[in-house]
Amino acid sequence: MIRRFSESIVAFLDRRGALKHSSKEVYVYGFDIAIYTYLT
């Protein structure tokens, strides 16, 4: 569930052109950890 939410955030940011790095998996991983940390 958190993974899908992270992927949605990254897809949104990618559509807006806010991502500078081409590897979206790095962003998904970062958001995944950030959301998990925030929720716990």
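That was protein one. Protein two is written in the same sequence-then-structure order:
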Amino acid sequence: MTTRARLRLADYFGYEAVSAFSCTIFLYCVFFWTRARFGFSDAQNLFLTSLHGLIYLLAARFGGRLSDRFGYDRVLLLGAAGMSLILGTGWLFQGWAVPFGVVALYTVFIAPTWPALEAAILHTPGKATMPNRLGFYNLTWALGDALGFFVAGLLFEWNRDAILWVPGLFHLAQLGWMRWAPSRRVGGGEPAMEIGHRGDEIPHDRKRRFMHVAWLANGLGYLMNAAFFALAPQLGERLDWPAHWTIWLSCSLLFTRTLGFALFWRWEGWHYHMAWLQAALWAGPVCLAVAFFAADARAIFTALALFGLALALVYAASIYYTLDYGEHKGESGGVHEAVLGIGVFVGPLLAAMAAAAAGAVAAQVVTVLLAFAANAAGLFAIARLARRA
């Protein structure tokens, strides 16, 4: 196996789609599984997702560097092997510590997968520009997420343990395909970095400022997203809905995020325009507050749909500005993934403390207030940094 990407772009996009579909079934439904099988409280679920975020930010940063040195295909192969083993066996064990062990070990292997995929997609020869490849990359994983969560509702209703062993089987299939698929890169083209695009005209200092604002927006986006899904079982209980109905309501966020990625892939007018990024930055906390505190399912659905659009823009901005700015694409992708890991770690951790002290409502209030405060503080810090540069 070569130290660089050896397959076609279509092969990597296919691997990405299966990864997103499989990971979502487990990572987004694990909170319903822990509640049903182990009796987890809201605080315990928030601590669980915070653990995921902490390990993700460390493993993604390391995994990005590893993929540049060890090879993208090797990292993908290692990731599929680890994920299939952990999910294939983790559902067999008993005890309250099992979910923490399964999530921790799974995160160690899933985190390096995404920087390796991002770098492979950019380095594989082809005719598409970097923004075009990243746009399709975003659309692919987002559609896999949405379909995975929707299918997870059916799986959970059928057999709650299936949300572990079914994605484990998909990862096992990825392992077999990556191990024995023949090298079949065909056709012409160049790596994405050698094909011109609008970012080539942007001064380096301006690129850095956009990257920093996008990091802030994406980190906070994942902070809010992680807290919402960790508390989703509580939302269903408030509406007096069964688990699979709540899962399908939450899918509105994922499907509109997918539509947003399709829009921001085909329309590049948001590139290096701060107003679009700022609008998405502030829309997120407003939508989350409505989703947390509205009593009507229609209002929650609308808020989640708009939240999905905002998340699409901040994620698209983060990955594009980071990879456009950085020299080493695997390492740069690792930084982008680590930033969202910080959000997944910090937000749910503080919310978990609030939930342990005063219940789920306190956790929701803390999450929303933290998002607004971090927005303001982060923008102030970035502005001061830009003035000093």
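The CA atoms of residues 42 and 231 lie 6 Å apart. Keep this in mind for the problem set.
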